[in-house]
TrEMBL record:
Domain Saccharopine dehydrogenase NADP binding, first and last residues per copy: 10-137
Lineage start: Bacteria, Bacillati, Actinomycetota, Actinomycetes, Mycobacteriales
GO biological process: glycolipid biosynthetic process
Transmembrane segments: none
Annotated family: Belongs to the saccharopine dehydrogenase family. Enoyl reductase subfamily.
Originating organism: Mycolicibacterium flavescens
One term under GO cellular component: plasma membrane
UniProt protein name: Enoyl-ACP reductase
C-alpha cells in the first residue's frame, strides 16, 4: 500500500501532552490540506485538545493508542504515512512505536535526545525499516535540527562552490532564552539511570561515534571532546574576544551530526570534526564563567548518573519539571535562540551558518520544527533522500527542510567568510 492510499498523512501521537498540544496547534495552522489525526491514550483528553483547536482541526479523527498495548500502535501505524510522536521518555515508551512503524513501512519522527534509545532503535529496527521503506527519524526538535541542518547547509554551500570537504566545524549558541521542558528532563534522568547501572551503556554514551552505522569505518580523529572550554578565536576570527563553554546538549547533537555524515556516505568529508559550544560573552568574567560551565557539564556527566540512580524518584520529580507541563504562553512567546556554525574546508575556505527562531526553544520552537519534519515526510516526498531505515533529519530530509524553513519562521543563512 502506498502512502497516498493510506487514510492519513500524519498521525500526531501524544497530542494531549504539552508539546503535543503545541504541535497540534502548529499543524492546524501550517498543515494545509494534510490529512491529520490526533492519537493518545485518553479519548476524552484527545477530544478536549481537538475542541481547543481552530475550525480546520474539528474534523480531525481521534485514535486511541497506548504504548503498553502494541496492537493499538500497529493499527495506528498501518493507517498513516507518517507518525509524529511526542511521547517520552523514549527509552520507556518509544521502541514499541518504532517497531510498529518499521513493520508497517510508515515514516516516523520524534523529539528524543536519548542516545541509548537511538542506538537501540538502530540495532533492532534499522534493517527492517530499510526493507519496508520506512524512515525512522529521531531528534526532530531543538535537539537536534539546528545542529544537523546548519552543518548540512554548510555542506551544500561548500559543494556548490566546489570548495572541498568540511573539516573543523563548530556550533556556537549565541543567544538562548527558554527553559528545559519536563519531557527533556525526564529523558535526561532515564539516560543517567541507565548509565549508572550498565557499564556498556556508559561506554556507548562516551563514544563520539556511538550512533554510527559502522564504527570500524569511522576515521580516528581523537576524542572530539564535547566538554572543553576555550577562546572563541580558536573557532573563528569572528569570535575573537569571546569565551565559549560546552553546550549542554552537545553529547547528543554531535552524535546525530556524525551519523548524518556517515549515512550520507561521508559527503561532509572523512576529516569532519564537530563540536558544540555556547557563548559566555566577552566580559572580564567570561573566562571564569566558561571554565565553571565546562566543569559543571563534566561533573553532571560523571556524577549525575550516580546521583539520579540513588535519589528516590519522588524527590527527583519534585525538583524537576514534570513531563507534560510547560511555561505560560507569554514565556513561550518571549523565548528565542540563535546558533552560529563555523566550518573550514579542505581548500581553506571558511563558512558560517546562522539559524534562529522566535519562541521558547524547548516548546514553541520545537513544536514548529517537529511539525515541519512531519509535513516534509508526508508532503515533500519527492524532495526526500532515497535513504530508508533509522535516519537523522539531515539524512532523511535535509533539502526539504531547507526549503520549508522560511515559511515556518525559521531563518537559516550561510555565508562564505574566506
Amino acid at each position: 500500500m502506498t502512502g497516498s492510499q493510506r487514510e492519513f498523512d500524519i498521525v500526531l501521537y501524544g497530542a494531549t501532552g504539552f508539546v503535543g498540544k503545541l504541535t497540534a496547534e502548529y499543524l492546524e495552522k501550517a498543515g494545509g490540506d494534510a490529512r491529520i489525526a490526533l492519537a493518545g491514550r485518553s479519548a476524552d483528553k484527545l477530544l478536549a485538545v481537538r475542541d481547543s483547536l481552530g475550525d480546520k482541526a474539528q474534523s480531525w479523527p481521534l485514535i486511541t493508542a497506548d504504548a503498553s498495548q502494541p496492537s493499538t500502535l500497529n493499527e495506528m501505524a498501518a493507517r498513516t504515512q507518517v507518525v509524529v510522536t511526542t511521547v517520552g521518555p523514549y527509552a520507556k515508551y518509544g521502541l514499541p512505536l518504532v517497531a510498529a512503524c518499521a513493520a508497517a513501512g510508515t515514516d516516523y519522527a520524534d523529539l528524543t535526545g536519548e542516545s541509548l534509545f537511538i542506538r537501540d532503535s538502530i540495532d533492532q529496527y534499522h534493517k527492517q525499516a530499510a526493507d519496508t521503506g520506512a524512515r525512522i527519524v529521531h531528534s526532530c526538535g531543538f535537539d537536534s535540527v539546528p545542529s544537523d541542518l546548519t552543518v548540512f547547509a554548510l555542506y551544500r554551500h561548500a559543494q556548490q562552490d566546489g570548495a572541498g570537504e568540511l573539516t573543523d566545524t563548530n556550533l556556537v549558541v549565541r543567544t538562548f532564552k527558554g527553559g528545559v521542558s519536563g519531557g527533556t528532563a525526564a529523558s535526561m534522568i532515564e539516560v543517567m539511570r541507565a548509565a549508572s547501572s550498565d557499564p556498556e551503556a556508559r561506554r556507548v554514551m562516551n563514544d563520539p561515534y556511538t550512533l554510527t552505522p559502522d564504527r570500524a569505518a569511522e576515521p580516528e580523529l581523537g576524542g572530539q571532546p564535547d566538554l572543553r572550554w576555550r577562546r572563541g578565536a580558536e573557532i573563528a576570527p569572528e569570535l575573537d574576544g569571546y569565551w565559549v563553554a560546552p553546550f549542554v546538549m552537545a553529547a547528543v547533537n554531535t552524535r546525530i551530526v556524525r551519523r548524518s555524515n556517515a549515512l550520507l556516505d561521508y559527503a561532509y568529508g572523512r576529516r569532519l570534526e564537530y563540536g558544540e559550544q555556547m557563548s559566555m560573552g566577552r566580559s572580564a568574567l567570561a573566562p571564569v564563567a566558561s571554565a565553571l560551565a565546562a566543569a559543571g557539564n563534566a561533573g553532571t556527566m560523571a556524577l549525575g548518573s550516580r546521583f539520579f540512580h540513588r535519589v528516590p524518584n519522588k524527590l527527583v520529580e519534585k525538583v524537576l519539571p514534570k513531563p507534560g507541563t510547560g511555561p505560560s504562553e507569554k514565556v513561550r512567546e518571549s523565548g528565542h535562540y540563535t546558533v552560529e556554525t563555523y566550518t573550514s574546508t579542505t581548500t581553506g575556505a571558511r563558512y558560517r551558518a546562522v539559524m534562529s527562531q522566535k519562541g521558547d526553544p524547548g516548546y514553541k520552537a520545537t513544536a514548529v520544527l517537529l511539525g515541519e519534519c512531519g509535513l516534509a515526510l508526508a508532503k515533500d516526498r519527492e524532495k526526500l533522500s532515497d535513504l530508508r531505515g533509522v535516519l537523522t533529519p539531515a539524512a532523511a530530509m535535509g533539502d526539504a527542510l531547507l526549503t520549508r524553513f522560511p515559511a515556518a519562521g525559521v531563518t537559516l543563512d550561510t555565508t562564505r567568510l574566506a
